[in-house]
Design a protein that fits this description.
heterodimer, A: alpha/beta, TIM Barrel, 8-stranded parallel barrel, 10 helices, 37% helix, globular, B: alpha/beta, Rossmann fold, 8-stranded mixed β-sheet, 6 helices, 14 strands, 25% helix
């Protein structure tokens, strides 16, 4: 059977990896290429790179880093951040990305997902959604979680899958950075309505959170986290050993 | 020197980098003379069967590829490049493959339990025939990375590895000097590099 995946996420700004709490107070950590190599040789099943730079200089630096990483790391790479057009897809795919993650770009341009899916295939298009509860409803937030779009997250995700997104990253703003576990309720709601791969993001604080995630929401195919891996609080090797002991199928 | 056939499908950056990593010099080429002189050949590929088969024929390289494969040169098809080795592909219609290996490529849809996602995407364990030279450095149960919605059937005699996805899905085939893997060795970490290394040692 397909294994459950563990995916470290690298937010890259100005050539370094950053991670904050609730998307603010970003702290710089270290070289993305080194971190990627480390993760790849220590059990990561896939890597996600988010480009959170805005300037064109930063973008060039990012594509250089991506190219260098792709030349050294032989596991799937997903790239997101600043993906607004098919040219953006082209740019990162040429640097060695395997999948491209869209977020605000898909909100601004509803044709982006269908166009990208028909050009590169569904498997290449990842829809990343930042979701927060507002008055008891799951709402889509844009611009790195700063702006409430007012859109219903479940409807948005359903539409994205219909348009050709092959994978969904559900990032709960409510649990992000809090380290008290993944947003089980939100993930269950998403898994109930789509038949594509769902990646859980936001809230991992320790190994048990991943065990609980895969045991309580079997539809989730991967757990994504950043700070607990970057700061060495949890090693991926050790996490996978624990998952394996809990009868969750992983690649050891 | 290894020749990677260039017929305009897919991104070959990772494949080239992974071969470089294991110390193998590889050139992406559509030059028939170069292909004749190469030690071994890789046929890559992503996309749809019919489109890729047409593009490969349009290069005019099919005859040279066929004669090199028939003359015993080590040959590896990867992903769609593996699917093209078979007689026919049934993806958006019916299309002729290269026919190097007996079998057909058909949709996973309807053949696997409906609760399983299509494409078959992610890491899956290989159940392998250890006698196949591709697997010299890896073990039964090692995981590799798959992304595909179609799979090879009616090819029992050439199957050398399967992956369980509701059914045993053809993961690799071998017939003499001709091999194919449905998964992506260039995206399968250390295990993938070991498979490429083993391929690059065949016939040495």
């Amino acid at each position: 059977m397909i294994t459950k995946r563990i995916i470290p996420c690298l937010d890259v700004r100005n050539g370094t990896v950053v991670k904050g709490t609730n998307f603010e107070n970003l702290n710089e950590i270290s070289s993305p290429v080194q971190l990627a190599e480390y993760y790849s040789s220590h059990g990561a099943d896939e890597l996600v790179f988010y480009d959170i730079t805005a300037s064109s200089d930063g973008r060039k630096l990012f594509t250089d880093i991506l190219t260098e990483t792709a030349s050294k790391v032989f596991i799937p790479l997903t790239v997101g951040g600043g993906i607004n057009t098919l040219d953006d897809f082209d740019r990162v795919l040429k640097c060695g990305a395997d999948k491209v993650s869209v977020n605000s770009g898909a909100i601004r341009n509803p044709d982006l997902i269908p166009q990208a899916a028909s050009k590169y295939g569904d498997q290449c298009v990842v829809l990343s959604v930042d979701v927060k509860r507002v008055d008891g409803k799951f709402c889509v937030f844009a611009k790195g979680g700063r702006e409430n779009t007012g859109m219903d997250a479940l409807e948005w995700i359903k539409q994205g899958v219909k348009n050709g997104a092959g994978e969904i990253v559900v990032n709960s703003i409510d649990t992000d950075g809090v380290k008290k576990g993944f947003d089980i309720e939100m993930l269950k709601a998403v898994c109930d309505i789509v038949n594509v791969l769902v990646i859980a993001s936001g809230g991992a604080g320790g190994k048990q959170d991943f065990v609980d995630l895969f045991n309580t929401v079997p539809g989730v195919s991967a757990g994504l986290a950043a700070s607990i891996f970057h700061y060495g609080e949890v090693t991926i090797d050790d996490l996978k050993k624990t998952l394996n002991e809990n009868n969750i199928t992983v690649r050891l | 020197m290894l020749a990677i056939i260039d017929y305009g499908v897919g991104n070959l950056f990772s494949l080239q980098c992974s071969l470089k990593k294991i110390g193998v010099e590889a050139v992406v080429t559509k030059d028939a003379e170069f292909i004749k002189n190469a030690d071994r050949i890789i046929l890559p590929g992503v996309g749809a069967f019919g489109d890729a088969a047409d593009k490969l024929r349009a290069t005019g390289l099919v005859d040279v590829i066929r004669s090199e494969a028939e003359n015993g040169k080590p040959f590896l098809g990867i992903c769609l490049g593996m699917q093209l080795l078979f007689d026919k592909g049934f993806e958006y219609g019916e299309h002729e493959g290269l026919g190097f290996i007996k079998g057909n490529v058909i949709p996973l849809e309807g053949k696997i339990p409906s609760e399983l996602n299509i494409p078959h995407m992610g890491w899956n364990a290989l159940s392998l025939d250890k006698n196949c030279p591709l697997f010299k450095y890896i073990e039964d149960g090692d995981c590799v990375y798959f992304v595909h919605s179609y799979y090879a059937t009616d090819c029992d005699e050439s199957v050398v590895a399967t992956a369980e996805y509701g059914i045993p899905v053809t993961a690799a085939v071998g017939k003499g000097n001709i091999f194919g893997c449905q998964f992506h060795p260039e995206k399968s970490g250390e295990t993938g590099l070991k498979i490429l290394k083993a391929f690059c040692e065949i016939g040495d």
